[in-house]
Write a structure and sequence with these properties.
Layout: H1 4-18, E1 25-28, H2 41-48, E2 53-59, E3 62-67, E4 72-77, E5 83-87, E6 99-104, E7 109-113, E8 120-129, E9 132-135, H3 152-159, H4 166-170, H5 181-191, H6 204-223, E10 265-269, E11 272-276
Antiparallel strand pairs: 1-6, 2-3, 3-4, 4-8, 5-7, 6-7, 8-9, 10-11
Helix pairs in contact: 1-6, 3-6, 5-6
The protein binds a DNA duplex (16 and 16 nucleotides) through helix 5.
Length: 284
DNA sequence: ATGGGCTCCTGATGGC
DNA sequence: TGCCATCAGGAGCCCA
């Protein structure tokens, strides 16, 4: 569910509420969300118990908790339905449904909830990558469009060599990370490109424009706290984001295009919905 | 190497 | 009211 803007909004909330705090108590279950750890939840427990949280960092849709004086981190990926909430000191201490991890801090606690368990909570180790330190488990993904070193031109040059559909490529976290189904469709609309065209059918310039459109859309979404359709995505304090009101195509099948008035259509690309304007997004 | 399909889950929604 | 089908902000894995 959450894409880069939503993950970034959550990351900022986590930094605000828990940077510098000490983890007083770690509790959790045997959920699938711990599946990437050798000893499941126990691996996470052993890492975090009694430790001080330094900050939260992020690349694409991956974020991770950095501890003071330790190269190991807790990598958090929210999948489709993961949520992180900060519960204040006088908040409820009972576990909500599908809570898989709770960290009691000096004041308040952090709660990880995920009904579908597509998310992952993984202990990993930081490795140098360019100017950054990235967890090993997420070292395969590309830079995201909001990183200073991200290079849309080199990304575009790679993209034009592929016969894959453009929409699929935008969702490929190894080519460029952070873009999900919402922002892929919004970027394609902004660039006037139909998602079922092939990577090699676009010019390098078109690809650059498309990638920059994705960057713009995501930066704008962060400004308003991300996209909330329902309570599945809220920030760590439970507040929704307001970018849904600025969506031009995503979820708007049957509604008029904001630019030309044509009816927005929906089709399936590799198993995911693709919303587009048949007039503004040329199919040739 | 590359592309595309299946799969892991729960919950909300809409048609009959 | 139920019951069933469909859909959902992701991505790892497997097969052709």
């Amino acid at each position: 569910m959450p894409e880069l803007p939503e993950v970034e909004t959550i990351r900022r909330g986590l930094d605000l509420h828990s940077a510098g705090a000490t983890v007083r108590k770690v509790s959790g279950d045997d959920s699938r969300v711990f599946r990437d750890n050798p000893a499941g939840f126990q691996t996470v427990h052993e890492l975090l118990q009694g430790r001080q949280i330094e900050t939260f960092d992020r690349r694409g849709k991956f974020m991770w908790m950095v501890l003071s004086d330790d190269p190991r981190v807790l990598v958090i990926h929210l999948g489709m339905s993961g949520q992180v909430r900060f519960v204040g000191a006088n908040g409820s201490s009972s576990s909500p449904p599908h809570e898989h991890l709770r960290l009691v801090l000096d004041e308040g606690s952090l709660s990880f909830v995920d009904p579908r368990t597509f998310g992952r909570l993984t202990v990993s180790v930081l490795e140098r990558q360019g100017d950054r330190r990235i967890p090993r488990v997420s070292s395969h993904i590309g830079l995201d469009p909001l990183e200073p070193d991200w290079d849309p031109v080199s990304t575009a040059k790679r993209a034009v060599r592929s016969r894959r559909m453009v929409k699929t490529m935008l969702l490929d976290q190894e080519l460029v990370s952070g873009i999900g189904n919402i922002y892929a469709d919004e970027a394609l609309f902004r660039a006037g490109i139909w998602g079922q065209r092939r990577g090699a059918d676009l010019s390098v310039d078109q690809w650059v424009l498309l990638l920059l459109a994705a960057a713009d859309a995501m930066a704008e979404a962060i400004e308003v706290g991300g996209t909330s359709f329902d309570s599945l995505y809220v920030d760590v304090s439970g507040n929704p984001g307001y970018f849904a009101r600025e969506l031009t195509v995503y979820g708007r099948e049957g509604h008029p295009c904001v630019a030309c008035g044509s009816v927005i259509r929906r089709t399936i690309v590799n198993g995911r919905s693709h919303f587009y304007c048949p007039e503004c997004q040329r199919t040739e």
